[in-house]
């Protein structure tokens, strides 16, 4: 769900682990493929991830969802590796594999024993330039994606609300389209759309290869040269940069769907990190999200759920690292007998309190203690460490920015947090989204007075 | 979007392990003076410590009229203890960057903490954990609020096709057995729960003698001994049986059709499967990899998704528990093709049981499970989870070391025999939520033909 994604990325942005530079090595091949190696010798395993700088934000109206459909098609075979063989070979090597598409990028990975890197590179490099896109397979796979869309979005009221929220928040920026695509577009996509997407974006000079685990950087570079080095680079289309114009006043909308409990989301347009050293607002907003919802004693849970018992759940999220703009969100489900309007008033009260009185030194220290501890905890996952590197590289920052970003987070002051709340959490900048529960029969549910039309 | 996340999740549900030629973690085991069983792996690679304390206190120890008691007791442990309000607990842990977590299923309830291993942080985190485990208060006001939140969540679950299906499936497979109870309880039973119920459940089920302490990370053996004792010395008397009643197989097939406005039908098929210590477990585990556990290469995935594009997610798994947990097949598909998908899945299952697997399939399964073993123990968190499972189910300390050999010696004939013993398609339960309109009209329950 998008909500979880926001939270997850916020955690990414806020709690980046300290990567000791000595353990990270990089090299760019002659064809433009950037190779980054993170050595970690705790266990005899490795992960290979290839990140293409092409996500749903690079799509056009009418063919939304093509980035993700192509991701599915990447498992359908090449000239030399027949349909189904990729997965079979990785499975026989004891590997796990998958892929994911986001607004900003598309990535593929395999987790394997440390001896199996050559196999993974052979297969991954092959499908970078030899993919076979057949019409029969394409038409079948689009059906799978439609089932995925039904499962993840159409039948999930919260996901539906967030899909509509993005569409409402962005009038010009392509973040208005869902990653999985509109059903209407999925119905009309053709194999030609997939071919043209593949040709446009799948090139070594549009990718970053990340290998992490029990490997030697020099050996990884040699293997990468051997398997990826011969793939010709290609001229990449000029990317259109779209910025979302300022919102000129509050927006508010409702989604009706079968559910029991309402959900209220208040989303504020917010910037993302463009220059890791010079920018400061994203750091302050990350800390602000931490103060509201970064731990069990954070404000929203403590005050709205536990003390006032206005909400049965409440949260906040902010993703400061993305190619495009971001949203700072507050959300909650009202307690039994509490209306959505009352919950909105309570959230607004918290925002006013932040603007008026700022945050305490203890709250600030608590958020920073999480940052410090999470730097250590994240080292328990080789996969996650590779994820961070790939993500940073794919959104226009560098893994080398990470230590500096951590210092900047640690340096955020209470005043900066208060200023950020004042500047960003303003009504003209706000979209209010309400999930209005419907009985399964399709008739409106009996709701508490005022629960529907929040004002 | 994680293209195959559901499959990954389904796969990870299977408690199973393998080994390769790499050195496995050395598991130290002893009994604390309190009576608790302790499992420890010393590892100083990262300056952190993970601890989990497990009890036979899952929802399998609930009764129908107090369904939800085990879960609520578990949830309230960290919401108030002697001398500490729920906010004190949350704040003290947050101040040092420690994370409180836990696990809950039909057999087991556990409380876990992850902390930096530096002395000040570690001591503080463990002090909070010790208090939470040994001096919980279950405050009335917190209980009232948490009951309200739980009831709201239960009402919400009653509208979600996947939750409706899971609940109906549990009932259909386990009947009146406690494994058929909803882990979170029912609205009516939760409403009636009192503080005295939680106190009594805690006293009976959280005793030191049935506690299993798992420790993984940056401490010495001597420190681990002290920690384990301090976490369990003042636990309540305990004394409730840790045995779950015997699961009885259903005597006939059932098919339950539940209407729902969703665009997809959610289909679950299954029956009680295998217990944690059953000799058939390994052949079933390997066989299920071939049937529906092995991601893209499984037969169900090939038939339903790869060949026909009928579903995004289709899987099968065994949930090995103290008593036979569910064997379950699941998928979601567009309503108008639900019956067709169901026929296909049933045919694939019958075919699997009647004809068994090929040598080639078996080899591929073994390759994946054995070669992939290092990935199962490549983090402190994963090793901690194995320590808990090994301790809780009294598996041999050599469990991880033995696993590849046990996988390797499974034969084609073993798989056929084990599946015929444990999986009978004629007595399976089928639940369809969001059933196609035309069959909705025929009513709710109908006996299913073969």
Structural description of this entry:
The complex is a heterodimer of chains A (455) and B (450). Chain A has 455 residues and is of the alpha+beta class. Chain A has two domains: 19-228, 2-Layer Sandwich (Cytochrome Bc1 Complex, Chain A, domain 1); 251-438, Cytochrome Bc1 Complex, Chain A, domain 1. Chain A contains 16 helices and eleven strands. In chain A, the strands form two sheets. A six-stranded mixed beta sheet of chain A has the order 1-2-6-3-5-4, sandwiched between helices. Chain A has a five-stranded mixed beta sheet with strand order 7-11-8-10-9, with helices on both faces. In chain A, a hairpin with a 4-residue loop joins strand 4 and strand 5 (106-113). In chain A, helix 2 packs across helix 8 (191-201), helix 4 packs parallel to helix 9 and helix 12 (340-357) crosses helix 16. The longest helix of chain A has 20 residues, at 135-154. Chain B has 450 residues and is α+β, with helices and mostly antiparallel strands. Chain B has two domains: 26-232, Cytochrome Bc1 Complex, Chain A, domain 1, CATH 3.30.830.10; 254-446, Metalloenzyme, LuxS/M16 peptidase-like (Cytochrome Bc1 Complex, Chain A, domain 1). Chain B is built from 18 helices and twelve strands. A six-stranded mixed beta sheet of chain B has the order 1-2-6-3-5-4, with helices on both faces. Chain B has a six-stranded mixed beta sheet with strand order 9-10-8-11-7-12, sandwiched between helices. In chain B, strand 4 and strand 5 (109-116) form a beta hairpin. In chain B, helix 4 packs parallel to helix 9 (221-232), helix 10 (281-293) packs across helix 13 (359-371) and helix 11 (299-306) runs antiparallel to helix 12. The chains are: A alpha+beta (455), B alpha+beta (450). Chains A and B meet through helix 2, helix 3, strand 4, strand 5 and helix 5 of A and helix 1, helix 3, strand 5, helix 5 and helix 11 of B.
């Amino acid at each position: 769900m998008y909500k979880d994604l926001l939270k997850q990325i916020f955690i990414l942005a806020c709690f980046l682990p300290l990567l000791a530079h000595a353990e990270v090595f990089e090299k760019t091949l002659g064809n433009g493929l950037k190779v980054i190696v993170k050595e970690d010798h705790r266990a005899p395993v490795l992960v290979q991830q290839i990140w293409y700088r092409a996500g749903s934000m690079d799509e056009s109206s009418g063919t939304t969802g093509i980035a993700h459909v192509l991701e599915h098609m990447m498992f359908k075979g090449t000239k030399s590796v027949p349909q189904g063989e990729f997965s079979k070979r990785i499975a026989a090597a004891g590997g796990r594999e998958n892929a994911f598409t986001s607004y900003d990028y598309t990535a593929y990975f395999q987790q394997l024993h440390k001896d199996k890197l050559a196999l993974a590179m052979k297969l991954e490099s092959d499908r970078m330039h030899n993919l076979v896109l057949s019409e029969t397979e394409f038409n079948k796979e689009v059906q799978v994606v439609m089932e995925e869309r039904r499962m993840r979005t159409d039948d999930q009221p919260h996901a539906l609300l967030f899909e509509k929220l993005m569409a409402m928040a962005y009038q010009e920026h392509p973040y208005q389209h869902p990653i999985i695509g509109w059903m209407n577009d999925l119905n009309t996509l053709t194999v030609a759309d997939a071919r043209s997407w593949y040709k446009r974006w799948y090139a070594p000079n549009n990718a970053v290869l990340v290998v992490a685990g029990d490997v030697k950087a020099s050996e990884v570079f040699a293997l990468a040269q051997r398997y990826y080095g011969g793939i010709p680079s290609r001229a990449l289309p000029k990317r259109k940069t779209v910025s979302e114009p300022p919102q000129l006043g509050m927006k508010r909308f409702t989604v009706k769907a079968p559910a029991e409990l309402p959900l209220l989301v208040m989303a504020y347009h917010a910037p993302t990190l463009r220059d890791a050293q010079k920018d400061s607002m994203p750091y302050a907003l990350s800390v602000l999200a931490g103060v509201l919802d970064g731990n069990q004693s954070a404000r929203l849970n403590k005050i709205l759920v536990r003390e006032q018992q206005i909400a049965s759940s409440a949260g906040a999220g902010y993703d400061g690292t993305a190619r495009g703009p971001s949203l700072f969100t507050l959300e909650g489900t009202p307690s039994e007998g509490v209306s959505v309007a009352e919950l909105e008033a309570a959230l607004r009260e918290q925002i006013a309190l932040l603007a008026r009185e700022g945050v305490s030194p203890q709250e600030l220290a608590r958020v920073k203690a999480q940052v410090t501890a999470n730097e250590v905890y994240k080292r328990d996952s080789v996969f996650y460490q590779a994820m961070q590197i790939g993500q940073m590289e794919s959104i226009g920052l560098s893994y080398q920015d990470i230590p500096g970003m951590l210092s900047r987070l640690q340096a955020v002051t209470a005043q900066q947090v208060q200023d950020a709340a004042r500047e960003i959490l303003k009504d003209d900048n706000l979209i209010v989204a309400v999930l209005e529960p419907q009985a399964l029969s399709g008739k409106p549910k009996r709701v508490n007075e005022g629960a529907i039309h929040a004002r | 979007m994680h293209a195959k996340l559901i499959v990954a999740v389904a796969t990870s549900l299977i408690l199973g392990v393998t080994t390769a030629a790499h050195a496995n973690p050395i598991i130290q085991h002893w009994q604390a003076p309190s009576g608790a069983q302790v499992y420890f792996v010393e590892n100083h690679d990262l300056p952190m410590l993970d601890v989990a304390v497990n009890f036979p206190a899952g929802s399998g120890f609930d009764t129908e009229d107090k369904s939800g008691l085990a879960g609520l007791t578990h949830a309230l442990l960290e919401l108030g203890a002697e001398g500490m309000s729920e906010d004190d607990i949350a704040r003290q842990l947050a101040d040092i960057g420690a994370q409180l977590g836990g696990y809950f299923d039909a057999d087991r309830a556990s409380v876990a903490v992850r902390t930096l291993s530096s002395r000040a942080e570690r001591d503080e985190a463990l002090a909070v954990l010790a208090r939470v485990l040994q001096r919980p208060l279950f405050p009335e006001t917190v209980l009232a609020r948490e009951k309200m939140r739980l009831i709201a969540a239960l009402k919400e679950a009653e509208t979600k096709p996947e939750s409706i299906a899971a609940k109906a499936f549990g009932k259909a497979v386990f009947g009146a057995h406690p494994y058929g109870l909803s882990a979170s309880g029912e609205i009516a039973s939760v409403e009636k729960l009192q503080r005295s119920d939680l106190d009594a459940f805690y006293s009976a089920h959280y005793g030191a003698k049935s506690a299993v302490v798992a420790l993984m990370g940056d401490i010495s053996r001597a420190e681990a001994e002290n920690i384990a004792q301090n976490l369990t010395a003042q636990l309540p008397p305990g004394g409730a049986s840790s045995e779950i009643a015997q699961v009885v197989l259903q005597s006939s097939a059932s098919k339950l059709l539940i209407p729902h406005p969703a665009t997809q039908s959610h289909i679950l098929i299954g029956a009680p499967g295998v217990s944690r210590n059953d000799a058939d477990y390994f052949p079933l585990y390997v066989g299920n990899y071939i049937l529906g556990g092995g991601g893209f290469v499984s037969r169900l995935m090939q038939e339903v998704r790869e060949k026909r594009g009928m579903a995004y997610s289709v899987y099968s798994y065994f949930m090995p528990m103290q008593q036979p947990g569910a064997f379950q097949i699941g998928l979601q598909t567009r309503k108008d093709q639900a019956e067709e998908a169901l026929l296909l899945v049933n045919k694939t299952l019958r075919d699997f049981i009647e004809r068994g697997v090929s040598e080639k399939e078996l080899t591929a399964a073994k390759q994946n499970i054995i070669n992939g073993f290092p990935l199962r123990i490549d983090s402190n968190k994963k090793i901690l989870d194995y320590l808990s499972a090994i301790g809780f189910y009294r598996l041999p300390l050599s469990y991880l070391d033995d696993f590849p050999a046990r996988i390797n010696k499974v034969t084609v004939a073993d798989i056929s025999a084990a599946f015929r013993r444990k999986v009978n398609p004629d007595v399976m339960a089928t639940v369809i939520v969001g059933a196609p309109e035309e069959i909705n009209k025929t009513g709710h329950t109908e006996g299913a033909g073969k």
